[in-house]
Specification:
The chain has one domain. The chain is built from four helices and no strands. It is elongated, with a radius of gyration of 17 Å.
Length: 89
């Protein structure tokens, strides 16, 4: 979300700034919704965050500092899901 701060420019109206902030933060808001769902269903978080990391690598060509945390979060969700699954069996 920090990257959306470039929307503040002189001469823009409040509506243009709000629209720009929303447009810049759509990916972060999407991942926030997935994170909320993932608190209950870890497999959703694991798959989604790993896929988000892959999308950043192959489609968007973003640097390592952007997509590495998505992989890490996805792996942590998968580890937790496997541990809960093994405890049930």
């Amino acid at each position: 979300m920090m990257f959306s701060l470039d929307v503040f420019e002189p001469g823009l109206t409040a509506g243009e700034i709000i629209r720009g902030l929303f447009m810049h933060n759509i990916p972060a808001l999407f991942l926030l919704i997935i994170l909320i769902i993932s608190w209950k269903h870890e497999i959703v978080g694991g798959i989604t965050f790993i896929l988000a990391g892959l999308i950043c690598i192959f489609i968007l060509s973003w640097p390592l500092i952007i997509y590495l945390p998505a992989f890490f979060i996805g792996i942590l969700f998968m580890i937790n899901w496997f541990k809960k699954r093994s405890l049930k069996n």
